[in-house]
């Protein structure tokens, strides 16, 4: 059984308040795009579930989200051990949700493989136990997210008339590091209002609150965003807590000269 786990970008991200549990309330738009990890699940050769990672030089840690996804369902259902092969292509520490997507896809694959008959909402509930971004990847369609990112509402947002360029600098930023530079505040206008504006106006109103602190600490990421605009981006932003930055361009735009900033992924039709 083979499946593809795609990435996401955040269109706008407002940090609204800090919660008593230490997490933050936020609002953001999750939007999927086609940069993929590849997952294969087969029957285990031994009486234990195992994980193999290729594509990137990553160690298999016991708390890897793919293994946690398996253990989550194993606690509830009598499922057999499996072997998970993850071919990693989405960079980590980029704000692209690769690990969360992998975990969500493992849940969906195990649900199908073992005939668990979990509904979409039931899968979302279990995905929320693994991480704030994980539930989004169950339905994997444009969503307005609230709370810590797990309260999801489908939105009508189609960007297929454009193409997306994503650049991942040689910098990885942990979520904890990103939050150290934010100052929560209630925005004047909700993203649900702002996202209805023409895409050409987003750059004036749709902001990512992580950018201020991260740009100060990593000037290269700020220069990358400016370079995307110089190349003709209609809208450019850091995705999530970074470090990847994406630009939305006219479909026929010719985009070059970004390789000096890091790994470039283009063109991608949204």
TrEMBL record:
Reaction(s) catalysed (UniProt annotation): 4-CDP-2-C-methyl-D-erythritol + ATP = 4-CDP-2-C-methyl-D-erythritol 2-phosphate + ADP + H(+)
Domain GHMP kinase N-terminal: 64-138
Biological process according to GO: isopentenyl diphosphate biosynthetic process, methylerythritol 4-phosphate pathway; terpenoid biosynthetic process
EC number of the protein: 2.7.1.148
Classification via InterPro entries: GHMP_kinase_C_dom (IPR013750), GHMP_kinase_C_sf (IPR036554), GHMP_kinase_N_dom (IPR006204), IspE (IPR004424), Ribosomal_Su5_D2-typ_SF (IPR020568), Ribsml_uS5_D2-typ_fold_subgr (IPR014721)
Endpoints of the signal sequence: none
Taxonomic superkingdom: Bacteria
Keyword Nucleotide-binding: yes
UniProt domain GHMP kinase C-terminal: residue ranges: 210-254
Active site: 8, 133
GO MF term set: 4-(cytidine 5'-diphospho)-2-C-methyl-D-erythritol kinase activity; ATP binding
Alphabetical keyword list: ATP-binding, Isoprene biosynthesis, Kinase, Nucleotide-binding, Transferase
Record-listed ATP binding positions: 91-101
Pathway assigned in UniProt: Isoprenoid biosynthesis; isopentenyl diphosphate biosynthesis via DXP pathway; isopentenyl diphosphate from 1-deoxy-D-xylulose 5-phosphate: step 3/6
TM regions (residue ranges): none
Family, per entry: Belongs to the GHMP kinase family. IspE subfamily.
HAMAP family: IspE (MF_00061)
Function (record text): Catalyzes the phosphorylation of the position 2 hydroxy group of 4-diphosphocytidyl-2C-methyl-D-erythritol.
Identification of the protein by name: 4-diphosphocytidyl-2-C-methyl-D-erythritol kinase
Organism: Sphingobacterium wenxiniae
Gene designation per UniProt: ispE
